[in-house]
Design brief:
The radius of gyration is 31 Å and the shape is flat. Strands 2-3-1-6-7 form a five-stranded mixed β-sheet, with helices on both faces. The chain has a two-stranded antiparallel sheet with strand order 4-5. It has three domains: about 50 residues, no CATH class; about 90 residues; about 150 residues, 2-Layer Sandwich (Alpha-Beta Plaits), CATH 3.30.70. With about 325 residues, it is α+β, with helices and mostly antiparallel strands. Helix 1 crosses helix 2. Helices cover about 70% and strands about 10% of the residues. A hairpin with a 2-residue loop joins strand 2 and strand 3.
């Protein structure tokens, strides 16, 4: 197929779906048109079989599912690499142990041979064996050192890979999962909730008057506030929810197996907990006031795309802002 034909088909899909002609959307369409990605082709074929057309909702579901699949592939490759490195470290450790044992045996044999009478013809041969044995012992020692170095380097590489993986999924300021990590968690949680027929709720929060706070007290103290909010979220929700930093002063909490009523109650208690303490500056102890947050809560609807799910929670959060802040509003279906 010519490039012009491919471009025409891609444009047709994007226009019919009513979505932005972004590089990401173009890539997804290109993989479908050229049949170069079986996963993407399967997603398109499934949507077309159901509705005969790709609208914006269908395209969004395809994009989110494709992103989740790429995330799983990356995790799979990282896991395989980690296993390979672990195997190499194990082999290096075993080889080093074997070499050390062999070296010890050679040294013992050399000592015993050196104690024999050197006046006989056999002694000449034995002397040569001693020389060769000592040479082999030196080479074995060198091998031990090389294996030990390789083992250390492999261990360091595995540590660096794990660190990079963690840093790539973590917000540097708050130590919470970042937006990219949250998107992956949400895609997986939606798939699990739909497969199990269980509820999935989402709390979307925004720190009240944060810009004014930053302008008054400075960004350094503003960062402390964000860390305080993140810490309070983690302590409050514990193992029942998965908080993440969505961006700026916005935070989200994923709540698997929680109904709207349960999610609302948990969010209300969080608001009370967050606002119960008046913060002070570290240097002079000056009180800067209470920190509050407005939250919107939504529960996943059947067949709902992740973006629509987030948008409903976001709209509910803005409704909470308009209603006076420091409160929780539930999203409509």
């Amino acid at each position: 197929m010519r490039q012009s034909e491919i471009l025409a088909k891609i444009t047709e899909i994007l226009v019919e779906a009513g979505v932005e002609a972004s590089p990401e959307n173009y890539e997804i369409c290109h993989r479908f048109i050229t049949r170069s990605d079986l996963e993407v082709c399967s997603l398109f074929d499934k949507e077309l079989a159901q509705s005969k057309a790709i609208d914006s909702g269908a395209f969004q579901r395809i994009a989110e599912a494709a992103a989740a699949a790429r995330g799983k592939d990356l995790a799979h490759h990282m896991k395989n690499m980690d296993e390979q490195i672990a195997a190499l470290i194990g082999a290096a450790t075993t080889a080093a142990g074997d070499a050390a044992s062999y070296s010890a045996s050679l040294k013992t044999g050399a000592t015993n041979l050196g104690a024999l009478d050197t006046g006989s013809d056999a002694a000449v041969i034995i002397a040569e064996l001693i020389s060769q044995t000592r040479l082999m012992s030196e080479r074995t020692a060198s091998l031990e050192e090389s294996l030990a170095t390789a083992g250390s380097e492999l261990s360091a590489l595995r540590s660096d890979l794990e660190k990079a993986k963690t840093e790539g999924a973590t917000d540097a300021l708050t130590a919470l999962p970042n937006r990219r990590s949250f998107d992956e968690m949400l895609a997986n949680a939606i798939a699990e909730a739909e497969a199990a027929g269980q509820p999935l709720s989402l709390a979307f929060g925004d720190v009240d008057h944060f810009k004014k706070f930053n302008d008054t007290w400075g960004h350094k103290l503003g960062d402390e506030v964000l860390r305080y909010v993140a810490g309070t979220l983690t302590k409050h929700y514990g193992s029942l929810g998965h908080p993440a930093r969505f961006g700026g002063e916005e935070f989200v909490v994923l709540l698997p197996q929680r109904s709207m009523a349960e999610a609302e109650k948990m969010a209300q208690r969080f608001c009370e907990r967050l606002s119960s303490r008046a913060l002070k500056t570290r240097n002079d102890g000056k009180e800067v006031g209470k920190i509050t947050m407005s939250l919107g809560v939504a529960t996943l609807q059947p067949g709902e795309a992740a973006s629509a799910f987030i948008e409903r929670a976001d709209e509910a959060m803005y409704a909470a802002k308009k209603a006076g802040r420091n409160r929780v509003v539930c999203a409509s279906a």
